[in-house]
Amino acid sequence: MPCEEYERLKSGYKSEMRQYAQFTYSENRQLLGTSDRKSKQIAKAAMERAALKSKEMMWHRATCEACQKEA
Ligand SMILES: [Zn+2]
Fold it and tell me: Which site from 19, 20, 32, 33 is most exposed, i.e. has the minimal number of CB atoms within 10 Å?
C-alpha cells in the first residue's frame, strides 16, 4: 500500500488530468460552453499542473520509506 501522502498526490494528479481532458476534447468543450481559446489555456494550465504533480509523485517515491518498501 502506498502511503497517504502518495495517494493524495495521485488523486491531485488524476483531477488535473480530468480537467485537462474536459477542456481538450471538443465534445466536452461544447458541453461546458467555454470558448476554444479559453479552453486551450485551461487545458495547458491543467497539463502543467499534472506534470508538476507527477514529478512530486516521483520525488515522493524516491524519498518516502513507506513507498520504497512497497516497491
Ligand atoms: Zn510515501
Answer: 33
* Residue among 28, 19, 7, 4 at smallest CA distance from 50: 19
Average pLDDT value over all residues in the chain: 91
Rounded to two decimals, the pTM is 0.83
| Helical H segments across the chain, by residue range | 4-24, 26-32, 36-63, 65-70
Cell of 22: 474536459
> Are 11 and 56 spatial neighbours (Cβ–Cβ below 8 Å)?
no
Rounded CA-CA distance 44/16 in Å is: 10
Task: Give the Å distance between the CA of 16 and the centre of ligand 1.
Answer: 20
The answer to whether 56 and 1 are in contact (CB under 8 A) is no
The residue with cell 518498501 is: 69
